[in-house]
Structures are given as C-alpha cells and as structure tokens.
Amino acid sequence: MTEMHYIKAENKRILASNSVEYVYRELGEKNGVPIIALNHLSANLDNWDPVIIDGLAKDHWIITFDYQGVGGSTGNVPDTIQGMAEDTVNFINALGFSRVNILGFSMGGMVAQELMEQKPALVEKAILAGTGPRGGQGISDIIKISDFELLRAIANFKDVKTYLFFTRTSNGKNSASAFISRLKIRKDNRDKTINWFAYRKQLHAIKRWGEDSKADLSKIKQPILVVNGDHDIMVPTTPNTYDLHERLTNSELIIYKDSGHGSIAQNNVAFVKSANLFY
C-alpha cells in the first residue's frame, strides 16, 4: 500500500470571529489556491477517504475541517444548509483566505452551492460530488432513507455507510468493505464522533433544504465538476445529478458505473486523477 499521510496529519485548531474554535487538518505544499473540503452528513475529519486526501495533496494544498458543533469543533450545528455555508465562510476567513477551491461531498456539496451563492467571489472552482440542487427530487426523503438503512446496519453489525454509500453488487460490497477499513487505519488522535442530537439537526437541515424553493444556479459562473455514481439512493442520481450539471452554466459531469452515493471513494484513484486535472 502506498504510504498514507492524511492518517498522520496533525489536528489543528483556530478561533474564528464567531467565537467558534474549529478543528482542521491540512496537507500538501502551502501555496496556490487551497482546497477546502466540505464533508457529508454526520462526518468528522476521520471520515475522509485518505486515498483521496493524499492524492489531492500531491499537487494541491488541501484542508479538511469540522463544521461547528461537529467532532472537535466548538459551537452548535446550524439548523440550515445556508447556516452551514455561513459557518464555512467563518472558518475560511479565520484562515485568512480570500480565494479557495471547494471539494463538496454529499451535504458538503449542498453547503458549497449556498457558499457560492452567498460569497461568489470567494470560490474559484468547485467539485460537487454525490449531491443535488436545492429542492431536488427525493432529497427531502433523507430522514426516512437514513433511518431505514441505520436500522439495517445495526441489525447486520455493519457501518451504515455500507448501505447508504455503495451499491449492493459484488463490486459495491467489496468497495464498501475496503472503504470502511481505510477509515479505521488512523489509530492516534482520532476525531470525536458526532453526537446524536447534532446528527439529527443536520438531517433535518438537509430535509428542509430538499423542501426549499429551487435556486437560480445560472448565477454560479465558476467552473464546476459534478460527480456521482449511477445509483445514488441518498440524492437520487436521476434527475438530481443531471439536473445540477444542466443548470450550472460552466460544468463538467462524471458518472461512475455500478457506484452509489460514495462513488468518489469507490473510484478513488480515478476520481483523484480527474480532480487534480480539474483543479
């Protein structure tokens, strides 16, 4: 196995103007436009696939962080996706960046869209993976889907991401097992698991975002790479991924075959190659 660096990255802390102390990790040479990675529902620093972070860090400066109220970050989880975007701006401002690239996965892709609407001059390029547009079809079913798969995971002694992120084909099952194993490689200074109440607050924020009115995505002029698997059960690929691509004025699209919501982890080597070319 190629030597991994993200699993050894230092947990750093920074105090922002909103009095929140954010926990973050950074990798890669500190020059150029940094990539700010926005993670999925319930995720902390340890939920990023180390193959993806290491792969991007070879050519780029990449920073992962915990939203406020998540993992080691202080504060309270915002109750809207728009609030999470404001939260992200506070973190970016604390680091002193005036221009960033974004890697938004799942809920992070929703936050990224709101971030570009709120602060368009802040974002140079963005990757939106495993996500859809505000008001997209099926997004408001997130609580029902997540709760069903969580009970299924508990009954089968599995990590819930096994069912939510991957297809149930032989390829999908093997990819799920490998991904879950990679997330456990780091043994020292692991991040804190999100608490139940913060997790439910995020779930309801996604539900409300799915019920909200559609955004005018034509206002987003930045280059965007839209990525998903062909069988995403959390944010249905059809129509959401295609709709997102069509409504963004400057976007590229990648759909991975026999892949689900976690397609970037299932196809991590191919994704890193495409992401490095994009950024």
TrEMBL record:
It comes from the Bacteria. The keyword Hydrolase applies. Residues 41-263 form the AB hydrolase-1 domain. Pfam families: Abhydrolase_1. GO terms for molecular function: monoacylglycerol lipase activity. GO terms for biological process: acylglycerol catabolic process. The keyword Transcription regulation does not apply. One of its GO terms (cellular component) is membrane. Keywords: Hydrolase. This is Alpha beta hydrolase. It comes from Companilactobacillus nantensis DSM 16982. The lineage of its organism: Bacteria, Bacillati, Bacillota, Bacilli, Lactobacillales.
